[in-house]
Write a structure and sequence with these properties.
By secondary structure, this protein is mainly β. It has a domain at about 45-80. The protein is about 0% helix and about 35% strand. The chain has no helices and 3 strands. It has strands spanning about 45-55, 55-65, 70-75. Strands 1-2-3 form a 3-stranded antiparallel β-sheet, with no helix packed on it.
């Protein structure tokens, strides 16, 4: 490895991003895994993920309309707070 200019890189520590054991209210699962839609603008879903960049973590929230499967809204933020929501 030294001859070829290679070196080992230590694995990054796992970062916990959510706490499932809390007393905060949780929204009901109204779709219950049924992601079909007969007409436009009946059902929408959203999700949040995080992306590593050279400047640090960014959080991405996306809203999809299920009939067309198109993105109808999104937001990017440095912190995942209640104000981050769409």
């Amino acid at each position: 490895m030294r001859i070829n200019g290679l070196r080992a890189e230590a694995a990054r520590k796992y970062k916990v991003t959510n706490r499932s054991k809390h007393s905060l209210p949780v929204a009901p699962n109204r779709l219950e895994q049924d992601f079909s839609a007969a007409k436009p603008d009946q059902r929408r879903v959203s999700d949040i993920t995080y992306i590593w960049t050279k400047e640090g973590w960014l959080y991405l929230a996306v809203v999809l309309e299920l009939y067309s499967r198109r993105v109808i809204g999104w937001a990017i933020g440095e912190r995942m707070t209640a104000a981050f929501g769409l």
